[in-house]
Design goal:
Shape: elongated
Radius of gyration: 42 Å
Number of strands: 12
Number of domains: 2
Structural class: alpha+beta
Helix content: 10-25%
CATH architecture of the largest domain: Sandwich
Distance between the termini: 122 Å
């Protein structure tokens, strides 16, 4: 009896198992699974890509300042870590062909105007091989205690040769001339204005751009203020 019941029960279980149907997954389920797999794969790829480009800018890695031009091509360049040019990009990586390069300098002088007189020349620039550039401050007002600054800029040609000169005051047209050896060229600004000079001898060019300003006009503390910059190209 027990054997019969066991056999019957087993047959019933088999019938149930064999009679079960596994339904097909719904389209939404398939899409969800695919999306999950793609998202996981994409994250892994992104992580690898991030690790590979860590420290890069716009996917461009940096090359050291001592790299060859071939190795540095298409990469960022680091500044120099030591030496006189520490913190600067090496000159060999910069294409500055066609640009004026040379020594630059600045000047700034406040020259008090002597009452009813003129000051001694004060050097504001100049280069070896051409000559000095000086400024003088004079009083245009003969009234005691009332200074009216007048500035005179003078170039002394000590080169021993002719120096070509172009001079512009304010917005006027340039005055072009030649300054003979061992002679002087000068111009006067009665009020406040700007000036430009271009001096040339052989392979040397000297550019000066400056400003003249009257300070304290009508007082005993009047002065001529002269400031600007110069570029020497040779």
């Amino acid at each position: 009896m027990t054997a019969r019941i066991g056999a019957a029960s087993l047959a019933a279980v088999r019938g149930v198992v064999y009679g079960m149907k596994i339904s097909r997954p719904q389209p939404a389920t398939i899409i969800s699974i695919v999306a999950l797999v793609m998202a996981s794969t994409g994250s892994a790829i992104a992580a690898v890509d991030f690790a590979r480009n860590a420290g890069a800018v716009d996917h461009k890695s940096a090359a050291g300042s001592g790299s060859t031009l071939s190795h540095a091509a298409g990469k960022l360049i680091t500044t120099q870590a030591k030496g006189a040019d520490k913190g600067k990009i090496a000159q060999k990586y910069l294409d500055v062909g066609g640009l004026a390069r040379g020594n630059t300098s600045t000047f700034g002088q406040s020259v008090p105007v002597p009452d009813n007189s003129s000051s001694v020349p004060t050097q504001i620039g100049g280069i070896p091989g051409l000559g000095p550039l000086t400024a003088t401050c004079a009083d245009q007002d003969n009234t005691p205690g009332q200074g009216d600054p007048q500035t005179t800029i003078m170039f002394a040609n000590t080169s021993g040769d002719v120096v070509n000169q172009s001079r512009t005051i304010g917005g006027n047209n340039p005055a072009i001339s030649a300054v003979l050896a061992n002679t002087q060229s000068q111009f006067t600004i009665n009020g406040s204005s700007t000036f430009e000079l271009h001096l040339q001898r052989k392979a040397t060019n000297y550019f000066v751009r400056g400003v003249v300003r009257q300070d304290g006009r009508g007082s005993s503390a009047a002065a001529c203020v002269v400031y600007g910059f110069a570029l020497e190209v040779s």
